[in-house]
Amino acid sequence: MYKLDELLTIEQAATKLHVKARTIRAWRYKRKIPFTRIGRRLYVGAGIVEGLLNENAIPALTSRNPAKS
Fold first, then answer.
1. Which residue from 1, 21, 44, 46 could staple onto 14, CB 3.0 to 4.6 Å apart?
2. Helix H segments across the chain?
3. Strand order across the 41-45 sheet
4. What are the respective helix, strand and coil percentages of the chain, to the nearest 5?
5. Residue 61 has what pLDDT?
6. For residue 60, what pLDDT is reported?
7. From the CB of residue 6, how many other CB atoms can be counted at a distance below 10 Å?
8. Does 67 score more than 80 pLDDT?
9. CA 37 to chain centre
10. Is pLDDT of 68 > 80?
11. Could you give the CA distance from residue 66 to residue 69 in angstroms, rounded to a whole number?
12. Do the Cβ atoms of 17 and 3 come closer than 8 Å?
């Protein structure tokens, strides 16, 4: 599935997402993100982290005068 250089530790994934490592562990426990286990170590694919960032991106307004609510 992933190459070794595409795997991030829980701490590395947390740093990239600007969350605490325990948040990543909670997401893993709740099966909100896929992960890879090698022995006792857990890894998250770099593509998964990038996907999370892209999925949750909010696009900029294209109009110079945004509609008023």
1. 21
2. 10-17, 21-29, 46-55
3. 7-9, 41-45, 36-38
4. 45, 15, 40
5. 85
6. 87
7. 14
8. no
9. 17
10. no
11. 9
12. no
Please give the model's pTM, rounded to 2 decimal places.
Answer: 0.73
Domains of the chain (ranges, CATH numbers): 4-55 (1.10.10)
Residue 43 and residue 52: Cα distance in Å, rounded? 15
Q: What is the pLDDT of residue 3?
A: 67
- State the virtual CA torsion across 17, 22, 26, 31 in degrees, nearest 10: 50
Residue 44 token pair:
């998250």
Output the pLDDT for position 16.
93
Structure tokens belonging to residue 53: 């960032």
CA-wise closest residue to 13 among 31, 22, 38, 4: 22
pLDDT of residue 66: 61
What span, in angstroms and rounded, lies between the C-alpha atoms of 27 and 62?
33
Q: Which carries the bigger pLDDT value, residue 46 or residue 1?
A: 46
